[in-house]
């Protein structure tokens, strides 16, 4: 997904062609640059379960935390069954006081932005990218890339999980084996 700076399309109104370059396009940071490794849980291959929090998402969380004078402000990612594609995610503002590592919660931090995710949601949403987007219909936090998503609805919050791909991730060391980092 490419987000355009407001000046990127100005050439189209003057009749001259617009040349898109790195200076006119503002792409969402790639996964490698924005990923955050989980220090609590790893997968069956001892690889850390990770998510990516874009610069704009981290900045918005930091800004909200400062506006509300609440250093414990965090975003929580919840996955539940439902929606038109079988699963749905919900991103809501919460507090790190709700962080329960003994119940499987993970806390991700990037540039001051905090993200809470429980282990089940992390397994399904692993390697996903969370962004703060501004669109004509509004603005908010959104999962913009999720490699285990087979399909999703138009609203973007309901999705279908590629269970074959998910199961394939655990085959090297065997199913049912849990790796927890202490």
Q: Supply the helix-strand structural class.
A: alpha+beta
Strand order of the largest sheet: 7-8-5-6-12-11
Shape: globular
Tell me about the biggest sheet? Answer: 6 strands, mixed
Order of helices and strands: EHEHEEHEEEEHEEEEHE
Rg, alpha carbons: 18 Å
**CATH evolutionary superfamily:** HesB-like domain
What is the CA-CA span between the terminal residues?
36 Å
Shape-level CATH architecture:
Sandwich
What's the mean pLDDT score? 71
State the CATH topology.
Hypothetical Protein Aq_1857, Chain: A
- What's the level 1 CATH class? Mainly Beta
Individual helix count:
5
Count of individual domains: 1
Family: Belongs to the HesB/IscA family.
GO molecular function: 2 iron, 2 sulfur cluster binding; 4 iron, 4 sulfur cluster binding; iron ion binding
Pfam families: Fe-S_biosyn (PF01521)
Protein name: Core domain-containing protein
Question: What is the strand and helix layout of this fold?
Answer:
Elements: E1 2-4, H1 10-14, E2 25-27, H2 31-34, E3 35-42, E4 48-53, H3 55-67, E5 73-81, E6 87-95, E7 105-110, E8 113-118, H4 119-125, E9 129-135, E10 138-145, E11 149-152, E12 158-161, H5 163-168, E13 179-180
Parallel strand pairs: 4-9, 5-8
Antiparallel strand pairs: 1-2, 3-4, 3-13, 5-6, 6-12, 7-8, 9-10, 11-12
């Amino acid at each position: 997904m490419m987000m355009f700076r407001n000046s990127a399309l100005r050439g189209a109104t003057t009749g001259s062609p617009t040349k898109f370059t790195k200076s006119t396009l503002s792409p969402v940071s790639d996964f490698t640059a924005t990923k955050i490794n989980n220090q609590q849980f790893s997968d069956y291959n001892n690889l850390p379960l990770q998510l990516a929090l874009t610069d704009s998402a981290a900045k918005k969380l930091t800004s909200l935390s400062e506006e509300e004078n609440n250093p414990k402000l965090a975003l929580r990612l919840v996955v539940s069954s439902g929606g038109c594609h079988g699963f749905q995610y919900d991103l809501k503002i919460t507090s790190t006081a709700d962080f329960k590592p003994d119940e499987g919660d993970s806390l991700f931090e990037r540039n001051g932005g905090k993200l809470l995710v429980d282990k089940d949601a992390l397994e399904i949403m692993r390697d996903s990218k969370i962004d703060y987007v501004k669109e004509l219909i509004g603005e908010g936090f959104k999962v913009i890339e999720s490699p285990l998503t087979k399909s999703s609805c138009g609203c973007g919050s309901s999705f279908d999980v590629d269970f074959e791909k998910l199961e394939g991730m655990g085959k090297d060391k065997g199913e049912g084996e849990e790796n927890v980092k202490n």
